[in-house]
From TrEMBL:
<dbReference type="GO" id="GO:0032843">
    <property type="term" value="F:hydroperoxide reductase activity"/>
</dbReference>
<dbReference type="GO" id="GO:0051920">
    <property type="term" value="F:peroxiredoxin activity"/>
</dbReference>
<feature type="active site" description="Proton donor">
    <location>
        <position position="131"/>
    </location>
</feature>
<comment type="function">
    <text>Antioxidant protein with alkyl hydroperoxidase activity. Required for the reduction of the AhpC active site cysteine residues and for the regeneration of the AhpC enzyme activity.</text>
</comment>
<keyword id="KW-0560">Oxidoreductase</keyword>
<feature type="disulfide bond">
    <location>
        <begin position="131"/>
        <end position="134"/>
    </location>
</feature>
<dbReference type="Pfam" id="PF02627">
    <property type="entry name" value="CMD"/>
</dbReference>
<keyword id="KW-1015">Disulfide bond</keyword>
<dbReference type="GO" id="GO:0006979">
    <property type="term" value="P:response to oxidative stress"/>
</dbReference>
<keyword id="KW-0049">Antioxidant</keyword>
<keyword id="KW-0676">Redox-active center</keyword>
<dbReference type="InterPro" id="IPR003779">
    <property type="entry name" value="CMD-like"/>
</dbReference>
<dbReference type="InterPro" id="IPR029032">
    <property type="entry name" value="AhpD-like"/>
</dbReference>
<dbReference type="GO" id="GO:0045454">
    <property type="term" value="P:cell redox homeostasis"/>
</dbReference>
<dbReference type="GO" id="GO:0015036">
    <property type="term" value="F:disulfide oxidoreductase activity"/>
</dbReference>
<dbReference type="InterPro" id="IPR004675">
    <property type="entry name" value="AhpD_core"/>
</dbReference>
<dbReference type="InterPro" id="IPR004674">
    <property type="entry name" value="AhpD"/>
</dbReference>
């Protein structure tokens, strides 16, 4: 499945998503590795099989095996971290903030690709998963690494559109069940 196939799966009432997926994936502010890695990581975070299949096909056509693994790793590790750190952010008790997380996160230190790209994937997944602490943390790292606000916004736009498409397709599936 390609992005073209994915666009055809989007119902007419969500035609804005169809238009947006084309524009965000043609974004020239990001490198190919950043663009397709963010797409794959965001698709995995959004958890829709059709969107994941399209993202995987596009990733396989544009990314190295290492970048694909890094996108998958970002989705996996942020799936854990986003829950934990969102809890820390949302709880009114300060007791937990001083405790060590005791969660293994080795892939963040050695992602197998450029650190800035892995952090950008992690930022996109954190946006999809709604973890403000993680968004702030990864945004600071990519800014320090030299990414401009427009580049960061481009990655988050990919994540937002990917999530919107996944949510729409999930809704359609539920309506037809």
């Amino acid at each position: 499945m390609s992005i073209k196939d994915l666009k055809q799966a989007i119902p007419d009432y969500a035609k804005d998503l169809r238009l947006n997926i084309s524009s965000v994936m043609d974004e020239d502010l990001l490198t190919e590795q950043q663009r397709y890695g963010v797409f794959l990581a965001s698709a995995l975070a959004a958890r829709n099989a059709t969107v994941i299949a399209a993202a995987r096909a596009e990733a396989e056509a544009h990314l190295s095996a290492e970048a694909i693994e890094a996108a998958k790793a970002a989705a996996a590790i942020m799936g854990m971290n986003n829950i934990y750190y969102r809890f820390l952010h949302l709880t009114s008790s300060g007791d937990y903030k001083s405790l060590p997380a005791k969660l293994r996160m080795n892939v963040i230190g050695k992602p197998g690709i450029e650190k800035v790209d892995f952090e950008l994937y992690s930022l996109a997944v954190s946006a999809v998963n709604g973890c403000g602490m993680c968004v702030d943390s990864h945004e600071a790292v990519v800014r320090k690494a030299g990414l401009k606000p427009e580049q960061i916004q481009a990655a988050v736009r990919i994540a937002a559109v990917t999530h919107g498409v996944a949510q729409t397709l999930d809704g359609e599936s539920a309506l037809s069940a």
